[in-house]
Amino acid sequence: MRVWRAHPPEQRHCTKGVLRWVLVWISVCFLVFTVGPPSRWRLKEGLSTQSSCPPCDCYCSSAEFPLDPLDCGKHDPVMNEEMNKDLLTMLSEELSLQKIVANETLEHTKRLVMDARKTFSHYQKEAEKCNIGMETCEEARERAEAELIEERRLTALWENRAREYGWNDRTQ
Fold this sequence. Notes:
This protein is mostly helical. 74% of the residues lie in helices and 0% in strands. It has three helices and no strands. It has helices spanning 9-51, 77-83, 87-164. The longest helix has 78 residues, at 87-164. The protein is flat, with a radius of gyration of 46 Å.
């Protein structure tokens, strides 16, 4: 009895070799993809931080000032004033700035709270209207139900009187 196989034994060895070759290439590509881009990103970050540095705004000519870039801003009166402030002055300025930001945040929060209260009030009024409408409908339903019961009672009474006088219901 002969067993039928999809591929002869020689082709199966060839298929295994191709499979190994494909797996090796996939592994290499995965390794390059995993290791390669981060190193290029770091390289790009290094270049971008160097190139994105804003140029110095002081226009120092080499005739007036030394070529040292650290000395460039020393002759600017505004820069000198900022650099010569003592710690207490800088801390008080920082505190005043934080106070301004805190006050603005507080005002913004107060506005948001007022808006939330207005919205809550609006929805509360709408809910009250809805509840009043539901109560009115419920009262009307109860009245209609009571009237229907009374009407049925009267109908039964009149039918009984009619039967007493000889009326015969032929629809039954």
